[in-house]
Amino acid sequence: MKIQESAENYLERILMLQKSLGKVRAIDIVNDMNFTKASVSVALKNLRENNLVTVSENGSINLTCEGLKIAERVLEKHKTISQFFISIGVSEKQALEDACKIEHDISEESFTKLKEFLNKSK
Fold this sequence. Notes:
This protein is mainly α. It folds into two domains: 5-69, Winged helix-like DNA-binding domain superfamily/Winged helix DNA-binding domain (Arc Repressor Mutant, subunit A, Orthogonal Bundle); 75-120, Orthogonal Bundle (Diphtheria Toxin Repressor, domain 2). Helices cover 70% and strands 5% of the residues. The chain has helices spanning 5-21, 26-33, 37-49, 65-87, 92-102, 108-120, and strands at 53-55, 61-63. It has a two-stranded antiparallel ribbon with strand order 1-2. It is elongated and about 50 Å long.
């Protein structure tokens, strides 16, 4: 399933927040991403409609199996690409920014080869 870049960003951020906070609420996303409550509300509605997240009665946001799969893949791409850029001398700040842009568009073939290259150079 191909989803929009913004949805991938939300899923990745929810996963990261779950790892750091445990329980994630909409306000955590608002504060972390510096988006408005309205924007986050619309995004969560879309993610729920696509069965990528669930929201409990107490407001806790959880990734579904499919949402978790997508979030983990995007996060893996982000970490791998930023690691590559840092290894060739790009500043960490710039590497993280560029990785965020590339992680959504890189082909599976290129990403696989990038991972293979990084693993060989360790």
